[in-house]
Each structure stands twice: as C-alpha cells, then as structure tokens.
Amino acid sequence: MDDQIINLSPDFQPLESVEDVEEFYQAISREKLTHKLSPDRPYCYWTIETYDKANGIRGGGGLGVLAADMRRVAEQLQVPFVLVTPFYPWESHQKMVNLEQIDYHTEINYRDFGFSFVDKIRIKTATTSVELDVVEKKMGSSRFLCVTEPNFGELYSGESGSDHRLYQEVALGFGGYQALKIVGLRPAVIQLNEVATFFAAVARLDELVSSGMDFYEAVVYTRKHTLYTNHTLVQAAEATFHYSQFEQYVFPNIKSTAVKRWLSDKFTDGTIRLSTPTVEIAELRSGVSKLHARVANYRDINGTKIKFKSVTNGIHMRTWTLPEIMNYYYEHGILDRFDLPATPNFEENVSKITADDIRELKMTGRKRLNEILANRTDQYGNPVHIPENAILFDFKRRFVDYKRPWLPFSNPERLASILEKHNAHYILAGRVHMGDTTMFNKLMDLLHVIDRNPILKERVHYLPDYDEELGLALSLGANSSINTPIVGLEACGTSWMKDIANMGLLISTHDGGVADMPADNYLTISGKTEAEECEELYRQMEVAADAWNNDFDLEYWIHKELIAYLDIISGTRMMRDYLNYLF
Predict the structure, then answer these.
(1) What average pLDDT score do residues 529-554 get?
(2) Cα-based distances in Å from 25 to 15, 32, 579
(3) E strand or H helix at 571, and its extent?
(4) Residue 299: pLDDT band by 50, 70, 90 thresholds?
(5) How far, in Å, are 61, 85, 156, 252 from residue 88 at the CA level?
(6) Answer CATH for 320-570 from 3.30.230.10, 3.30.200.20, 3.40.50.2000, 2.30.30.90
C-alpha cells in the first residue's frame, strides 16, 4: 500500500510511556491490567485468517481484516499481544478476460515480508508426521507468530469439511501452541477467532492434564482463560467432520487419554461441528455486534442455547482513515489520543464540521483513490478514473448471496437514470470465495447486465482482485457506500465503519453492527419485500447524491453518522471492551 495512506499519522504515534499505558488501562478498568498482561504472558489471539497484505498475509474477508486490526490496535495501545495464524505460501488472485473472471495463484515467501525463522515443529497424523516452520515478526508490543510449510496451500483451500481444511486447523491449533512454547510465552488469555481455531484450546487443555493437573481442574482453568468469538449467525453453516478424520489428524496430537475421551464424547452419530466443543471449552463467548449477540443461534451438546456477550467489531482508525481526516478529528477535539470520542465536547465539536470542510477532505480522498485506480483495470481491462466533480457510489464487500451485491441492478434502467442524472459512477468490488459457483455465476450475469446498458457500461466499474488497498482507497474517495445484507444475516461488517470514519454517506439495511444504533442515523433501506427495499435503495441514492450539493443536508447526515458511530467503530473501544470482559 501507499505508505502515505497506511502509516500512522506522524503526530500521533503509539503510546510510549508506562504512564500513558497505565492511564489507558485505568480508564477502562478498576484493576491494573499491567499486572495481568506482560510480554511473557500476552494476550494470544488465534485466527485461521488474517488480512494484512503489507505483512504478506492476504485474507478472504472481514474475519481477516478484523484480526489484523486487533493486532494494530494492540501495538498502538502497547498491549502485549500475539497473533497466531498460518502463513499461507500461496495467494489467490483474479483477472478479467472477455468478461469472465479467471483465478490464478502466486507464491509468497515469508522472508520477503520481514519474518524471521524461529524453529521447526512437528504435528502428527495417524500414519506420519508433518514438519512446520515457525516464523515470527515483532512490531512493538505485538507480534505475528506463524506456522507454515510448502504444502500448506492457500487460505480455505479444499472443500469445507475436507481433510486438508482439518489439517490446516490442526496445524494452527497444536502447531501454534507449540510455537508459543518455543518462543517462551504462556498465554494470559486465548481468544479463538471462530471455531477453526478450536484446537488451540485443546492443545492447552492437553498440556495442563499431561503435566499432572486433574482433568476437571484443567477444564475449569482452560475455560476461564479462553474467549470464543463467533462471527456467524447459525450453527448449520459450519463444516461437519467425521470421527475417522479426527482419528487421522486430531487424536494423534493429544497425549492425554482423558482429553481424547472428552473430545470423543462430543460426536453425534459419528460427526461433529466444532462449535459444540468450542462453546464448552470457552467460558467467555462474544458476538460481534449487539444484534448478533442476541440472535446467534448456537446450542451446546444438550441443546441449550448459548448466550453471547456483545463486543461489536471495530477498526484501527489510523489505518483506515485519511490522515488529513484523522488530524482534523484531533485538532478539532473530536477524537482523543486513544482514538476515542473526546470528552466533554465531542458532540458539540462534531456539529461544527462544515460542508466545505467535508468536501475539501473528500477531494483529497478522491485524489488518493484515483492514484490507486491508475494501477487497476475494470471488467474491460481499462484503467478507471473518477472525475473530481462526479458522485461516486460503491459496493466493496465479500460477494456472498446474503449481502446482495446484485440488488441495485434489479432495475438496470432505473439505476442508469440515477447515475446519469447526478453525474455519478458506481464501483463494484469484492471477492467470491473459492468454490462458490452460485455467486460466481451471479457475478458473471451481473457483468453482462451492465454490458447491455450503454449508460451502465460507461458508469459502472467492476474491479477484480479486491484487496485491502482497494478497500481503503474506496473508503477514502467514495461519496456514498451501499450495504445491502438481508436483515438478520449480517453478523457485523466493518466496511461501513471505514466509510463513516472517512465522512462518507452510508446507505444500508438495518443489520449487523449498523443496528447498534437506531436506523435514523444513516440513510436506511427498509421494506417488507425485496422490491420495496430496492425502491427505497434507489430513493436513498437520490438523497445521497443531492446531499453532496446541499450544505445543510450534507452537514446533517455527516454529523448524525459521526455522533452515533465514532465510538462504536473505534478499535480502541473494541479492545477496551475485550479487556474489560476478559479481566
């Protein structure tokens, strides 16, 4: 990425003094957390996916972006933090050829991104053992600790529930726990970022029991020091593994007979979903928005519904916000040095933001966007340049059916009319997960709908190979972002947070983290039927386009968004909530 965009603002570096760090801890907790977290006993965060391209690890969506932001926030706040994740030696990419998207892969070497080799470890299968490299990269109080080997493949390689997917998860859990021991660390807490990381908790439990601790005491200890963070709404969406797969890949890595027996008891009719033992091994469980924590439908082995604590996702503000906007927030008393809303005059100071300020800052963001677009091509292989005086709408989210990227194109003539009337462009960007043939075909159909309409062909730009750089650039330079998940299916989402941080107008259904606040704080899409929602979407696009030419309306909506959501979207607030919950 462009260093000018991704680096922290030079005037606001990470907390450096012990007094600063202790002040932050004291501000969020009655206890001195420095007595509970230390460089030797850090906060350990396990994730199968990280999206931090600057460090050579390319994820697939919001799960990975969140993991990278957790580490960035920890580094900024000087929280001792270890992110345990695979380093995938292959990346998937996309390009367009004759309106058809082609997937291809590139090889990645961890040494090219500043990682150091630590040692080799082994994990076992029923028939052999696999040697893994342990590599690390230290950044302030935080570090990446990764396991990797040449045949590890790419993120989500193999079908869900496949042997290779289970191998990757076992390697991350058992291998990652071995890696912690090699570098001399013991986790103060373990956070499991989704159920794919479950085996890290099993590895800890097995170590405690194998070292002589009573099994039930070891279970209690592990439970009290393990947090499971869930990002999906329904258990049925999970992969199912068979007992024979566990015999091949899991049980050979467990020393304790008691732990093997405990895990074997979690199978039903010879199969298991990993959330079942995960909610049992983790006493602390969090959902990633208020709505998600209320409606997530997960049950334990007895069929009892699991309760989740709400810790809404946040973003690392200094990574995802235009530096000029961050400096504006600091200088005008809107954010404090922790990147939280400044007290006591936060709302008053937000209300002083003028339409001229907003337009000038967004003009700077548009220039940054066009610098990035100069190195990208659209569905026709052409570079894209958005004029400074044009309105820009965007959709930049993972392409899955429930997010409905196709919704604005339900009436192509109506969309074309709106774009032409307001001198507007529309950028469509996102990634289809490997193997999702249904969504891939919908995307291809959508591109042909665009191609058949001359106005859409001129003003709608699909940008393949979506990544962090493009997501950031669109947040900086778009006037309005469109977020259309089916209500009840989005756990949180974070793309919309970046749009609000960068003074963009949000058009969204009332779902996920957006629903943490009432629906009158942004341009809401509502309706009892999809047709009604689509009509409301078109109406709100007109409202958004008109607002950029009306000082009163622009100030009204930007003020409402910032007052309602700046605290919610702050990664510092997210870290504060996790620390309070954990300790």
Answers:
(1) 98
(2) 12, 7, 9
(3) helix 571-582
(4) confident
(5) 15, 9, 10, 24
(6) 3.40.50.2000
